[in-house]
Amino acid sequence: MPVQNAREHIVTAVVNDQIRSPEEPVEDVRVALTPDRVPVAEAIEWATVPHCGAVVTFTGTVRDHNDDLEGHRTGIVGIDYEAFDRHVEPRLRQIAQAARDRWPALGRVALFHRVGPVPVTEASILVVVSAPHRGEAFTAARFCIDVLKDSVPVWKREYSGDGTSGWVATGNRIDDVPAAAHRWCLARNPEPA
Questions:
Q1: β-strand 65-67 against 73-75: which pairing, if any?
Q2: What is the pLDDT of residue 189?
Q3: What is the model's pTM?
Q4: Fewest C-beta in 10 Å: which of 38, 50, 100, 141?
Q5: If 0-12 CB within 10 Å is exposed, 13-18 middle and 19+ buried, where does residue 109 land?
């Protein structure tokens, strides 16, 4: 039996763990710093929307080795991530907004980073971007992960099979989001001399 008045039949949706009515706008950005497993499948499902034909996902997983600064390969059994917590989610949100500003047609953007111990093969970083077309989705996802690595204060301690551990020295400075985004753009489109 069809509903005579749409207001009589209110459908709600759960967005960002909150129940919303259809009249409320749905936020197109999700960010999180989490000690739990990164919700890969859930983020892809959330980012898949009718007006977007592309959903690009980057999942950074812990691998079983690393090359140290001298080029020696070391075996890894896990990584422990630490973060300057109060700065992570605001910066993730800034990165997502910067991507949306550069590519206005983007559908949804999700950025997650894990903290605490993460074993080999589990995800530590997730970037999900949806867009009407694959080109902007791929480029925006690349922008998000590259700027995240340069501007989000997260550090990692690697644990090897022999019981030793050490902080990973990347040589990268942690910059603010606008500076890291500007540097990313310059690297791809250098200004004429």
A1: antiparallel
A2: 78
A3: 0.80
A4: 50
A5: buried
